[in-house]
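Give me structure tokens for this 205-residue protein.
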Amino acid sequence: MSTRGLVCVVLAAGSGTRMVSATPKVMHPLAGRTLLGHVMATASSLETSGVYVVLRHQKELIGEYLTKNFPAAVQVEQDEIPGTGRAVEVSLSKIPADFSGDVLVVSGDVPLMDKQTLNALIETHRSGKASATILTAVREDPTGYGRILRSADGQVAKIVEHLDATEAELAISEINAGVYIFDASNLREALSNLESHNAQGERYL
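Here you go.
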């Protein structure tokens, strides 16, 4: 068993505009829990030194839910700068500055993600001594998802969001599953270089 530290960041700041609902996407019910509730239950079952949840859209509603159901979670408010990269950046401000382990980042709207899959991702990341590891999936219809671009040696080279993709990139069926793990020190350095030159004007991971 690795003694390397681990913290988990859950992204729950988005508005989920594609659902066209007054209810935040992560608060929609599924099988007796909210989408976020499923993610939080899985995150809380991992061996971490803390679970940090990033909030922005309807933060009071989601915050109350977390306080009632997952009181140990640390709530972090994202500012007006949009994007998943910015969400992770603000979460790091709450994580102890001397933390030097790994940061697991999970989208708050992936309720079927289980502990076994996350532990396998963590093990793959650590055994390969990687700076960053991402979970991907292959879908027959990848519409709306970020596409995975790989280099000649098979490594992930880039994630291209659907709105930024070329026609050739849109034909790619491998997508970003919204789960990542990073070496904390490398993550801090990389986040400082993020830009928002994309169709949405957001600072993406």
